[in-house]
Amino acid sequence: QATEAYMPDYYRGGAVTAIRAEAFKNNQTLESVRFPSALVSVGEEAFKGCTSLSSVSFPDTVATLGASAFAECEALEEFAFPKNITVVSSRVVQGCYFDFVAVPEGVTAIEPYAFACKAKTIVLPASLKRIETLGLWIELERIYYAGEKPLPCPTTRIRTRTAKCCSRQSP
After folding, report:
1. Residues 31-62: pLDDT tens digits?
2. What whole-number distance in Å separates Cα of residue 26 and Cα of residue 100?
């Protein structure tokens, strides 16, 4: 199996805008990916179990990351969500380990188990309106929230070890 995946911008005369579900699932040798410049969506479990994948960089056109799209990608050291997503999908980075995760402004919802991972710091945007049950299932040290109102999870359990909530601050 290849260690690099190069996806062209065009295929058979049309722009490549999607990566299908399970496209690279369990490819344990894949280390890097070059995404097409017009990419809009990454399907469910597209890269799940790609244990050697060490970094991803999305074009600004990406608006959807499917459930578990990057779950169990243990080598991912950082993960920058695409700027245009509005929902952080269920289990999107489950089983990953990060020092820092920033959810971009414009995201309004975090689905169940979206962050079933280990991270030291997470930054949540002011645009966030809903965190589903156990949306932040994570071992945190710090949570930064840019909003003026309290975190939008009055009935949601946020499972953390010793997280400090730091509203309206930056890391």
Report:
1. 999 999 999 999 999 999 999 999 898 999 99
2. 25
Q: Which two tokens stand for residue 94?
A: 């489950």
Q: Which residues contact 106 (CB under 8 A, 6 or more apart)?
A: 83, 84, 85, 86, 125, 127
pTM to 2 decimal places: 0.84
Instruction: Return the ∠ at Cα 114 (arms to 111 and 118), rounded to 5°.
Output: 155
| Residue position matching structure tokens 């010793």 | 162
